[in-house]
Amino acid sequence: MAGICSEEIRDRHIPGSDMTADNGKGRIRITIMEYDENQLSTKDIEPDDLEGIFPSMESGKIRWINVEGLGQSQVINRLGQYINTHPETLEDIVNVNNRPKVASYDNYIYVIAKMLYYNSTVDEMEVEQVSFILGHNYVVTFQEREGDVFQPIRDKLGNSSCRLRKMGADYLLYSLIDAIVDYYFVILESVGEKIEDAEYELISAPSSRTLKAIHCLKRELTFLRKAVWPLRGVISSLERAEYKLINPLMSVYMRDLYEHTIQIIDNVEVLRDILSGMLDIYLSSVSNKTNEIMKILTIMTTLFIPLTFITGLYGMNFTNMPELKWKLGYYAALSVMVLITIAMVLFFRKKKWI
Question: Which helix (H) or strand (E) holds 67?
Answer without folding.
Answer: strand 62-68
